[in-house]
Amino acid sequence: MQVFTYMISFCENPPVTVFDPNRKRNARGEQRQQALLRAAAAAFGRLGYHQTTTNAIATEACVSPATLYQFFPNKEAIASELASMYAREMAEAERAIDSDGVLSFVEAVAELIDVCMSFNRKRPEFHTLVVDAPLSPSARADKQTLGQVFVDFIAVRLRRERPDLSRFEAAHHGQVALMIFRGILDELTVASAHARPRLELAMRNAILRYLMPVLTESPRK
Amino acid sequence: MQVFTYMISFCENPPVTVFDPNRKRNARGEQRQQALLRAAAAAFGRLGYHQTTTNAIATEACVSPATLYQFFPNKEAIASELASMYAREMAEAERAIDSDGVLSFVEAVAELIDVCMSFNRKRPEFHTLVVDAPLSPSARADKQTLGQVFVDFIAVRLRRERPDLSRFEAAHHGQVALMIFRGILDELTVASAHARPRLELAMRNAILRYLMPVLTESPRK
DNA sequence: CTCCCATACAAGTAGATACTTACATATCGA
DNA sequence: TCGATATGTAAGTATCTACTTGTATGGGAG
Questions:
Q1: Do A172 and B202 touch (CB under 8 A)?
Q2: Cβ A63 vs Cβ A36: under 8 Å
Q3: What is the DSSP letter of A13?
Q4: How far apart are CA B117 and CA B119, in angstroms?
Q5: B208: number of CA atoms within 13 Å, CB side?
Q6: CB distance from A97 to chain B under 8 Å?
Q7: Dihedral sign, CA of A43, A45, A51, A52?
Q8: B1 and B42 in contact (C-beta within 8 Å)?
Q9: B176/A202 Cβ within 8 A
Q10: Rounded Cα–Cα distance for residues B101 and B151 (Å)
Q11: Taking the CA of residue B14 as centre, how many other CA atoms within 13 Å lie in the half-sphere pointing to its CB?
Q12: Distance from chain centroid for Cα A146
């Protein structure tokens, strides 16, 4: 009975030397966690997701690899945490555009594109996180939601101009706009500072020129 | 001196048990090499470049991993060989379009897009090879050339319609068309058979709508 | 003061995978 | 038929990298 009690206590209170989601954090711990996220963001941005090792993240944060695993269960969790933060932040920024509906269709879409491009420029690591990293289900959901916000933004404005357009059609055109955005963004992330303004203009032109005919084409297609 | 002679002979005629580019091949060897390329293509297409292990390629070809290394120095060389073949084949197909110049601008560009989409549909592994695989310098050059053929095809047709357009401007618009193509292609490669025709239409629309205004906008921009 | 536990790390382990070695067999020219 | 060489493989090795273990330290609650 003594042995059994001992085993229970042994199994229930092991010395915590790995990640525990319920562990209490003090101020130092919170700061370490934030520092690790910042270090990971910098490393992902410089090397891309796959080239960035957990050891590199630890080194960047000036801690040992073991310390990293006190705060995150694995590499994917770090990427997922960052991707979720960024996806929610970006979705929020998109939702804030023209909330009082005073912008014209062209102005609103141009603003949407600007906001998205600015965000990706401010957070260069976001691209590799979304494209290359395997994400947790919840991070995937946030990424999915972000895409949906972009699509819906355009779909809503399309139907505001052309109420006879089906929801399905409107969403489809929003999705195509997103594909165009991603295609040009891929180049923007590697473009020289000198080439960037011209590409940003091309981004606006490509998406708006795709969408404009939708507003005027024959109602029954 | 004997020892020296022995060492020379030892160094110059080691039993060849690894890849040697100058090795003579017999018919069986040629067939094995082709079979390995076919197996690799199938595996890359199914799993993507990174998920495809050299062991998986060997298994797919029904040989041992060691046999694979009799015919290729490393995994990258297999991907590079395939990517080069495909890039050259696709570039050739693009150059063959409208060689006698009878098509209109819209017809020619639409044909270009069709050819590119058909090729990617016929060789689903091409996408991951070009996007995900680290390629040899020569394969990278072939990939680069392929992109240039696409860009030039459009640039030449643009300047045929608007001779006052600078080469630089024309190439820029060709590059943007390529970015749009890639953005939508990314989705096409994962789209359901049901969603594909709609996306293929969107591909044509997105690129042509981007390019058409270039033909009519004010000569001095 | 003191005990608990969060923090920290040196020095590992584990598992995956690209690639090799040592050796056996098939083919083919002379 | 025989030797040279191409083809083939079982059973590895080497290395990389995500992740752990055992142990030491420091700060805060009681």
A1: yes
A2: yes
A3: S
A4: 5
A5: 18
A6: no
A7: positive
A8: no
A9: yes
A10: 17
A11: 7
A12: 7
Q: What is the pLDDT of residues B73-103, one digit of tens each?
A: 999 999 999 999 999 999 999 999 999 999 9
How many whole angstroms separate alpha carbon A15 and alpha carbon A36? 23
Count of other CB atoms within 10 angstroms of residue B168: 8
Q: Is the separation of the CB atoms in A150 and A116 below 8 Å?
A: yes
Strand D reaches within 7 A of the B18 CB: no
Q: Is residue A21 helix, strand or coil?
A: coil
Alpha-carbon distances, residue A157 vs A181, B169, B184 (angstroms): 17, 32, 22
Tell me whether residue A180 is exposed, middle or buried, using C-beta atoms within 10 angstroms of its C-beta: 0 to 12, 13 to 18, 19 or more. Answer: buried
Nearby residues of B120 by Cβ (< 8 Å), 6 or more positions away:
B126, B127, B185, B188, B189
Model confidence at A218, in pLDDT bands (50, 70, 90)? low
A179 touches strand D (CB under 7 A): no
Length of chain B as a residue count: 221
Q: Show the tokens assigned to B68.
A: 């694979």
CA A209/CA A110 separation, integer angstroms: 11
Q: Residue B18 — pLDDT band, cuts 50, 70, 90?
A: confident
| Pairwise CA distance, residues B78 & B145, whole Å | 20
Burial A27-53 (b: 16+ CB within 10 A, else e): eeeeebbeebbebbbbbbbeebbeebe
CB neighbours of residue B25 within 10 Å? 12
What pLDDT is recorded for position B85? 98
Rounded distance, CA B93 to CA A147, Å?
Answer: 35
Q: Is B61 left (phi over 0), alpha (psi -120 to 50) or beta?
A: alpha
Per-residue pLDDT at A142 exceeds 50? yes
pLDDT in tens, A34-63: 999 999 999 999 999 999 999 999 999 999
Residues in chain A: 221
Instruction: Return the residue in A117, A176, A196, A203 with the most chain B beta carbons within 10 A, the one to mutate for interface testing.
Output: A176
- Cα–Cα distance for residue pair B211/B213, rounded to 1 Å: 6
